Amino acid sequence: MPTxxxxxxxGRLSDNQKSSLxxxxxxxxxxxxxxxxxxxxxxxxxVPKNNYFVAGKLLAHDNIFVHGQIRAGRQLELKQQLIVAIxxxxxxxxxxxxxxxxxxxxxxxxxxxxxxxRILPLPGDEAGWxxxxxxxxxERMNRLL
Length: 145
Description:
Number of helices: 4
Number of domains: 1
CATH superfamily: Macrophage Migration Inhibitory Factor
Low-confidence stretches: none
Mean pLDDT: 92
Order of helices and strands: EHEEEEHEEEHH
Helix content: 25-40%
Radius of gyration: 16 Å
Shape: elongated
Strand order of the largest sheet: 2-1-5-6
CATH topology: Macrophage Migration Inhibitory Factor
């Protein structure tokens, strides 16, 4: 369920930087939350140059926006750890300063999300949810690991 959407001006991030960011964000999320990797999605949105505005003005400086949606129920301290780690990794991989990276984390109730054909478990209940998942679906999920 955790879905991280990264928006930047078209051409700002290379394919290698995108791959590195996807891996880094997935690792950060899983290390801090304990969630399995097969839940993490990272999506890149290349915004055409004349379509990105800040303060009502056409973007004139470097800016990378990471919008994360995670299952509700995580403590504020953990969410702030996610934000800081994602901001630092994004800045390092994108070769920019952290002031050019915006990271938002929003909570979404697990009961309002379906993935892999089922309503998601509450944070911490992944093992029971996984045990009840049909073998054919678990095989698909595990191929992603």
